[in-house]
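User: Please fill in residues for this 255-position structure.
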C-alpha cells in the first residue's frame, strides 16, 4: 500500500479576539490506500478538526498536507471544492438528505455540481449502481420520510460514492442508529473497504471502532495512540449472532 494522505506537522489554531484555540497540534500522519481508520477522542480532543482538514473542509494554520501526492495545504476555496468533489466522499450522522427528493435523486446530486457535465442517462445509471452497492435498488423512488434511519444512511453512503472517491470520510455515521442497524452500516463500510476505498470514521464508541482496521486516539489536539486493531470484528459474523439472539428471544417470549 502507498500513502494517499500525508500530514506533516499539521497545526490548526482558531484565533478569536480574546483567545487562541489550538485545535490540532503538530500532527504527522500517513494514511495508506485501503486503510479503514476510526478516529476517537473526547469532546475537544481535535478529532473533528483533523477530519475537516483531511476532508479539505478547512485549511491548516501550519504544516503540509499531501493528498494523493498533491500539496493541498495552500489551495484556495475553489480549488479545495474541486479536490473534495474529485477525491472525497462524505457521510454524516444526520444523513442530510433532501426531504422532497427521492433516494435516486439524492444520490445524483453530487454529480450535478462537478466541473464536467454528465449526460442524464449516465447520471441515472451511476446513481442506480451506487444504490445497488448499498442494497437499496428497490427503494430508489422512495422519499427520505418513507425510509428507515438505516436506509437513509445507506442512501447517504451511495451519494458519497457516486463520484467514485478515493477516500470516504464518515462523521459518527452510526450515531443516530440502533445497534443492529449500526452493524448493517458497518457491514457496508467493510465491503466498500474490501473493494479498495480508504475510509476514515469519527466515532465515540469503542465497539464501533473494533470493526475498523486501525484506530487513532486523539487528546488535546495530538494523536496519542495509533494501532492496528488486533481482533477485528466482522459485521457479517456479528449480524448472524444478533439474528440468532433475536430469534431465541422471541421463542422465549412465546414460551
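Assistant: Residues filled in for all 255 positions:
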Amino acid at each position: 500500500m502507498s500513502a494517499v494522505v500525508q500530514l506533516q506537522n499539521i497545526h490548526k489554531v482558531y484565533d478569536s479576539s480574546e483567545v487562541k484555540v489550538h485545535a490540532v497540534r503538530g500532527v504527522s500522519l500517513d494514511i495508506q490506500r485501503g486503510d479503514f481508520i476510526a478516529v476517537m477522542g473526547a469532546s475537544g480532543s481535535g478529532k473533528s478538526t483533523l477530519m475537516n482538514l483531511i476532508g479539505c473542509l478547512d485549511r491548516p494554520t501550519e504544516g503540509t498536507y499531501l493528498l494523493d501526492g498533491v500539496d493541498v495545504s495552500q489551495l484556495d476555496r475553489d480549488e479545495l471544492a474541486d479536490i473534495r468533489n474529485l477525491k472525497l466522499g462524505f457521510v454524516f450522522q444526520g444523513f442530510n438528505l433532501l426531504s422532497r427528493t427521492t433516494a435516486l435523486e439524492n444520490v445524483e446530486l453530487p454529480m450535478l455540481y462537478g466541473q464536467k457535465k454528465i449526460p442524464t442517462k449516465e447520471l441515472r445509471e451511476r446513481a442506480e449502481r451506487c444504490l445497488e452497492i448499498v442494497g437499496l435498488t428497490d427503494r430508489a423512488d422512495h422519499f427520505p420520510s418513507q425510509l428507515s434511519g438505516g436506509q437513509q444512511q445507506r442512501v447517504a453512503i451511495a451519494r458519497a460514492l457516486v463520484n467514485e472517491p478515493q477516500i470516504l470520510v464518515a462523521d459518527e455515521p452510526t450515531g443516530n442508529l440502533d445497534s443492529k442497524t449500526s452493524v448493517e452500516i458497518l457491514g457496508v463500510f467493510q465491503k466498500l473497504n474490501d473493494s479498495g476505498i480508504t475510509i476514515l470514521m469519527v466515532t465515540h464508541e469503542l465497539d464501533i471502532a473494533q470493526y475498523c482496521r486501525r484506530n487513532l486516539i486523539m487528546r488535546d489536539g495530538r494523536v496519542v495512540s495509533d494501532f492496528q486493531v488486533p481482533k477485528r470484528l466482522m459485521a457479517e459474523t456479528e449480524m448472524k449472532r444478533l439474528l440468532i439472539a433475536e430469534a431465541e428471544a422471541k421463542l422465549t417470549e412465546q414460551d
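For context: The two ends are 54 Å apart (CA to CA).
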